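Sequence in, structure out.
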Amino acid sequence: MRAHYLQHVPFEGLGSIEHWLKTNGYELTHTQFFNTTDLPDSNLVDFLVVMGGPMSVNDVDTYPWLIPEKQFVREIIESGKPVMGICLGAQIIASAMGARVFPGSVKEIGWFPIHAVDSADSSVFSFPSSETVFHWHGETFDLPSGAIRLAKSEGCENQAFQLGKSVIGLQFHLETTPDSARQIVAHCRDELGPAKYVQSEKDILSASQNRYKSVNHLMDSVLAFLQRNSG
């Protein structure tokens, strides 16, 4: 089985996702858009992961590779294979499926709770009623047609969604490790400033090991759910 991931900047990699994919027998390949814009044959991909990044899905003049990337993501989604999108990745899924992506009313940066949205559909992923997760985003999105909202927060109504059986987009980061948190702070600390949902560098990096373990375990659960429901 082949898992392909789309990486937009060097400092936002797979994090804890890499261990899950390797443990579950996937061969890893990637497109790192900061090095190359080459995309594989979508028929050869069994699981797609779309990572985050500081750019907007609307920045197609600056990053023209966003256009073929979104086409590629849509192809994989329409094939019924599992697709996981994180932060920018979730926004790319939304945009690829025709939804609007736009600046949010507030930025969310740091460790803040998300809350599960109850659904009458028992086939969708169920988040804990509340979980403190890692955020770093200023944009948000409308839900794609047919998508079901899975989670929200005080600062952002659409924190997670599921489209069909095998596509999930997360506005937040469950793959975050202590190293990846340090990396994003080092490269994006200019975004840190006094705001209701923006933590200080010190507060971001003081998260306990148990907090990382908790979000990584939840990430594993989401990935396992997508794997079970693909096809």
